[in-house]
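ok trying this again, last paste got cut off
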Amino acid sequence: MKYFTLNSDTFIWIKKSQVLLYGSNNGNHLLLDLSDGVRSLCEKLIDVSNLYCVSFDDTDEDIVSFINESVSRNLGAVSEESGDNIAIPPLLKVQHDINRVDQDEEDMYFLRYLSSLTIYLGGDCKPNNYHTQIDYPFPSKQTIPLKSVVDFVLENNRNTLSKIKFILPVFDAEQITTLLTDLHDVCHKIEVVIRYTEVLKNRELLTNVAAQIEQVIIICEPDDDVEILEGNFMYNLITRSEMDYEKWLAIVDSKICKYDIVPIYDDNRTFFEKNIQITPDEILASQPSKRMIYIHQTINLFNWGKLYVYPDGSVYSKCGGERIGYITEPLNVLVGRELRANHSWRRTRNFKMCRDCILQFLCPSPALFEYESSDVAMLACKRKCSPTG
């Protein structure tokens, strides 16, 4: 009797009428439509108790072809004895910390997961909903008292915050100076986000601020007549169309500067379909590692570890999402609450369209702009395409 054993770093998924084998060590893959015999074999391989090793019927042509293809792509091996090549399938570890939060959501241990704090200071600015997709100020009649911000950070800081980001509707030199003076010793990575229209009014002051902090992020919109400034600036270039993209390239190609092209979903589906969506073949070509697949199964890489404070003092794990508390509460409680409720940090590709897709956990985590379409996850990939085997 012969046995077929998958390599320990090979993942196997069955979705509807297809099976996908993916080697996380080499990026090789095999995608096939399932015959009855191959489906039965693959279901046995998925059964953890079989340790990735099953006997097979070498008279079934479909099974033999499937195994030969797998071996030729270094995804598995054939042996004469079952014990020759047994392997431990790649399995996701039990989420011990998620169980732990059910026992005590105020555990200080959870602060280790907090990576950044973004604070919207409040004030007047152009209304839109871009803040649900990117770092962008939104209008608010309320402004959060600076003392509340400082007290919140100082009381909760236990060397856990790697980054604090302030979103400014308007530039206030006195306000920024106060924050930098009071918080610099507890967090050395402080960023300020401001619109380009405010930069024009406060160029010299902003240059001085930029020299004291990690960086000043300048949000530029397509109708801004942007001039690249010297200094510690990062340019976030909002892009809604190919015309916008070409404009930005013409500007940054002539200057040495740090910049990021930032696509915004704003009823511009055609632009996203043509330029932002990725194809299944591109997903496979990216060759995600075993570690990255585990991440895709467990957390949202874009959202993980981030908290947002609104001008009224409310705290969110995702802008535009569900409130998890207020800055009057300890950070460890807020983090524990998000871990329990999972409004954002552990939102993986669990949309219906993604659950039915053979590439579910090879695909990147859901980006914020994907939630802006009524056809959730439409923006992520060209679902009408099929990856090649």
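PB: full thing came through this time. The chain has a mean pLDDT of 87.
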